[in-house]
Amino acid sequence: MELWVFYLAAAAAVASALVAVTHRNPVINVLALIVTFFCVAVNFALMGADFLAGAQVLIYAGAILVLFLFVVMLLGAPTVSAEENPRPIQKTLGAFLAALVAAAGFFFFRGFSGEGLASPHAGVTTHALGRLLVGPHLFAFELVSVVLLAALIGALVLVKRKH
Amino acid sequence: MWAEVGVTAFKLAVIAGVLLTVVPVMTWVERRGAAFIQDRLGPNRVGPWGLLQPVADAVKLLFKEDVTPAHVSKGLYFLAPAIAVFVALSTFIVIPFAKAEGITLFGVPLKGLIVAPDLNIGVLYLLALSSISVYGIVLAGWASNNKYSLLGGLRSSAQLISYELAMTLAVLGVLLANGDLRLTTIVEHQGKLWNAVPQFLGFLVFLVAAFAETNRLPFDLAEAENELVAGYHVEFSSMKFAAFMMSEYINMTTVSALATTLYLGGWNLPGVSLPSGWLGLLLSFAIFFAKVGFLLWLFVWVRWTLPRFRFDQLMRLGWKGLIPLALLNLLWVSLGLTQGWW
Question: Is residue B276 part of a domain?
């Protein structure tokens, strides 16, 4: 049963990701991306990473994409018609990068033994994650928060009105 | 396995039944309550005290013509009310409605009147799903292809993002004091002292944010009748319109139940120890719903007492008022924890 849920979620993730990059309507793109994030969250939950699944939905699907949608709707981004193709280089470059990522994924997958993975259904992951964050990985954790703070202040400085 | 499925089905039936009954009752309470606050009588013709008015309204809504305007974006127009109701209904599965000690059903322990007792991330699940609820409103606004709807949808998304932060920070205080994401544990932890007492500030922030999250006055800028006609659901008629109304009332119930669980001790009453067995279940359910009922009345009470905020005031209150207060509450709780006060 879990296998079928996985196949279903994975297929939906790939399909919605394709819609997200190919559809001509920006609102549909954002919505498809939300579906993708949901499917990824389902896969996290299947692996027993319940906290990660919840955080995925809360942060990406619930907060960041609402902002995306907000901006798309506010700017009223027009639907791009199929004939015009103003970005020829980007398309080739994108295809090249996608091929590179696919190749990397393939080789990573071939050499992957499953070692070092937490066993699924390990129980409560929230507690363990918290311990790791403020224990061995405290420095990286604080570093990330400093980076976020810098980004926050940077955004403030950039949008501040000049008097 | 089938016994467990049966138990879950039983709980789902009970809780969904309760929630869907709250909707018509609350529409009646709202209309009568508004009337009494404004010194009128309100609907009192259908049934005793007008109690059958919601039934008449439901029949009317079902039989009204379902108009789909020609200029809407069809798929999303149908999807939006569905998302709103789906999210509203699926959030309550992690809320424990009553305690169930020593009760077995089909040979399986009941583990409290909660649909998913073994979900470790209770509060996180609830916050995650409630953050999804904005899509119902935003999509309704966009798909309607109407400037008033769009403005309502945009306002709603900005408002939800701002108040979600304050709400999550307030909830964080409770999680810090109780050390578990499961709501059942949080309720059991409040046997002696309700969280609302040491974390009064957090409770206040949570309540204000709850009004904003459910789009209720004084924060109902998404539908602001006198400037946006009816905001995001202008173009919806018949049951699609009813779906938005339903989701609003279900969300109010969920958020009241959450406030009861997190801050008002769930089914705990100070100085009262509940018996185990079915009697305990019924009693705890009654206590829990008395508290939820009070909070629901608070929603109605505030709606007909306070005027609406202006949008910039709303944003200022969210970012400059509530978030610092929630952070202060968090500091206070941490201080208490290090000193061993609770």
Answer: yes
Res A77 pLDDT > 70: no
Would residue B24 count as lying in a domain?
A: no
Amino acid of residue B157: S
Nearest by CB to A66, which of B120, B128, B157?
B157
Report how far residue A126's alpha carbon sits from residue A113's, in angstroms, rounded to the nearest whole number: 25
Name the one residue in this structure whose structure tokens are 């305007």: B69
Q: What's the gap between Cα B199 and its chain centre?
A: 20
- Here the tokens at position A121 are 């259904």
Q: Which of A33, A152, A63, A38 is nearest to B160 (CA)?
A: A63
Number of Cα atoms under 13 Å in the Cβ half of residue B29: 17
Dihedral (CA of A50, A52, A54, A57) sign = negative
Q: Is B230 on the interface with A (CB under 8 A)?
A: no
**Cβ of residue B160 closer than 8 Å to a chain A Cβ:** yes
Tell me the C-alpha to C-alpha distance, in Å, between residue B214 and each of A161, B17, B106, B174, B330: 33, 21, 38, 21, 24
Give pLDDT tens digits for B18-45. 888 888 888 888 888 888 888 888 888 8
**Residue A58 to residue B124, Cβ atoms within 8 A:** yes
Which DSSP symbol is given to B215? Answer: T
pTM for this predicted structure: 0.83
- Domain membership flag for residue B192: yes
CB atoms B157 and A125 under 8 Å: no
* B45, part of any domain: no
The CA-based angle B157-B162-B168, given to 5 degrees, is 115
Residues from A in contact with B at Cβ < 8 Å: 27, 31, 34, 50-51, 53-55, 57-58, 61-63, 66-67, 69-70, 73-74, 123-126
User: Is residue B116 within 8 Å of B94, Cβ to Cβ?
Assistant: yes
Handedness of CA B118, B119, B123, B127 (dihedral sign): negative
* Tokens 């969210």 sit on residue: B318
Q: Does B128 touch chain A (CB under 8 A)?
A: yes
Residues 6+ away with beta carbon under 8 Å from B283: B267, B274, B275
Q: Is the pLDDT of residue B311 over 70?
A: yes
C-alpha–C-alpha distance, residues B296 and B305, integer Å: 15
Output the DSSP codes for A60-110: IIIIIHHHHHHHHHHHTPPPPPSS----HHHHHHHHHHHHHHHHHHHHHHH
Residue entry with tokens 């809320």: B95
pLDDT digits (tens, 9 = 90+) for B227-272: 777 777 777 777 888 888 888 888 888 889 889 988 888 788 877 7
Distances (CA, A) of B289 to B81, B92, B208, B248, B257: 27, 14, 21, 18, 8
- Count of domains in chain B? 1
Residue at B156: amino acid letter: S
The rounded distance, in Å, linking the Cα atoms of A98 and A82 is 22
- State whether residue B47 is helix, strand or coil: coil
Q: Which of A67-81, A139-153, B296-310 has the lowest mean pLDDT?
A: A67-81
